[in-house]
Give the backbone structure.
Amino acid sequence: MSNLTRSPAWQALSSHHDDIRKQSMREMFGADTGRFDKFSLRFDGLLFDYSKNLITEKTLALLTDLAQQSKLQEWIERQFSGEKINTSEARAVLHTALRSPRDRTVNIDGKNIIPDVHRVLDHMRRYTEAVRSGAVRGHTGKQIRHIVNIGIGGSALGPLMVCEALKPYGSPDLSAHFVSNVDASDIAETLKKLDPETALFIISSKTFTTQETLANARTARAWLVEHIGSEEAVAKHFAAVSTNLVETSKFGINPENVFEFWDWVGGRYSLWSAIGLPIALYIGMENFERLLAGAHAMDEHFRTAPLKKNMPVILGMLGIWYGNFFGTGSYAILPYDQYMHRFPAYLQQLEMESNGKRVDRAGDEVDYDTHFTVWGEPGTNGQHSFYQLIHQGTRMVPTDFLAPLTSHNPIGEHHTMLLSNCFAQTEALMLGKTETEARAELVAQGLTGEALEALLPYKVFPGNRPSNTLLFEKLDPHTLGMLVALYEQKIFVQSVVWNINAFDQWGVEFGKQLANKLLPELRSKETVTAHDSSTNNLINLYRNLSKT
Ligand code: F6P
């Protein structure tokens, strides 16, 4: 057993779990009309209702004991202070500096990095204002109408999610497009929508070596030159965002259109950096700065709130409670806001690329689960897809429901209906439906005898299934910034307890390495025999097809 699973706080939670697992939330609510007040937090317009969880005040105390035992407060300060906590890459982790006010000081190796952060923000402001106003135009003098981000993973998922979530703030004169996949269908379908004279391509890549991004960038470049008829067009229709300014220069990007960021910004934590350029172009720099301010507000809450009143801490520790003590394998993110339809996909990289790790900070294999599969869809769509499993499946799936109290589109009764579904689902998951209740319903419907007995088992709901509800006034830039930072810091909390490095991603390298090895084999004239029979046959099937 590891130090963690042998530790007093872990052992205390383990024996507490033996008690709690026999209790019901229905009884907890029945015994305490003040339960909501005890287990909810409000901060800056955000309500975090975590009362529909299998917890008591003792649970909360034991979870915060585990956080304290893990020296969480020290780790929080180590993150914000610029200590190189990404130890396997010897890097600081300072996405929080990207949203810090100009007057802050954050040092890396004795150099305050905040001036650089704001130098790039000032450059973004100038550029976005020039593009949006028409001061900067395409090669033929036409105003830019299409923003096309070419990037993948953290160089795409964040900007895409934010542009979708904040569509009501997007310029009506601009469309935002995101090309990621090396599958040519991605760029082919996007190019069909574009007028080359009004398209601005942003090549977003922290390393500027990612195969998919460079392939798509080369295809876009060739398409533009072919359609405009001049290499000179590249200077006006391409921008780049990277830490690798040597490679951006080699690609031929006009240096004035290159926006740098730094190796202390993790790819999946980078939307706050110049990777957010497509966001700033689409919603405007003022709204981008509101997004940053929301995240900064959550950072300050995270740094200063006591553990028991700290949203990322509570959210993170609840995940550990279910994952490590109830053995849940996944959790579902269910935004009751159609604009947040890409939020689950964004969190998949953020959470699973951060904490999907099997080796701890000391290099030892862990003997406990780290991270869980994240999945989800907006409500109410999910209700017609996978809620059967969430309600009556054999495994508990903890859920996070997120919803705005006010819609950007107040049409008729839609929003009231949406929220009635959101609130009803969390109530149904908590309450369940007993056999007695189900029987009474069937009797009231006129069923009797064998017909009733045959149907009855299927109408019973176990209930006692946990959910969190995050309610906010409206999905605006500040709120979205707070929500994203909430999940970023929740992930950090969990990584500290699990004693893992949330900020490297060595697991993505092996597949890429083999793909580079197989690529020439798929092109070769000779039959390939170097691999296992499956891989050999797959390669040769393609080789033979492509010969015909
Ligand atoms: O998925 C691996 C990864 O390195 C991610 O961490 C990163 O966000 C993505 O690829 C893209 O990397 P880059 O921004 O360097 O092109």
